[in-house]
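[09:14] KT: can someone run the structure on this one? pasting the chain below
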Amino acid sequence: MNTTLDNLTVLDHTGHAEAGVGYLEMREFNRFVWAWAEGARITTWLYSAGNLNSTSETDVRVDSSATASINLPATWLAADEISRLLQQLNRFPTPEDAANNKIGASLAIDLGKAVATADYRWPREEKPHYVHHMRCGGCEQLTLTFRPPRWAGDKIKVDCWCGYELTEAEFALAALIIKTDLEAAA
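[09:31] RB: done, structure tokens below
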């Protein structure tokens, strides 16, 4: 049975994490180190991105307030929160020092959550994903994976686990045919 208590940090008799760094478990510390390194980059990107809609399908909000809303993009609010946390963590020379301090550990967990949430809601790069509405030419299953270019000059790759591959031109033509068929059916 998975309860909320399963997600809490397990502390030893000294108040430190049993398996981790300072007051953080290893998974919390690893996410914090990643967030510490990515925080400045994602903050810059969020400020320059402006007002983007969230890509999260679960991000449904209802305005239940009688007062006027803040006229700031959600990306700016997220960037401001990440900047605030990074500024508070600047007093610690290393991530290990922050993890060994109770306030630093709390800030580290908050930073990890804020950066991970922002990275999920507003992705900075396209990730590989399944192609819906198009069957594999080899196994006739809906198992084609679209892999975007990984660097400048790289090509789009569409492939299946069975070994079937489409070139960029073949994929564009097939996608156009499927799009026109779906529009004609609607």
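[09:33] KT: thanks! The longest strand covers residues 145-147.
[09:34] RB: yep, looked fine to me
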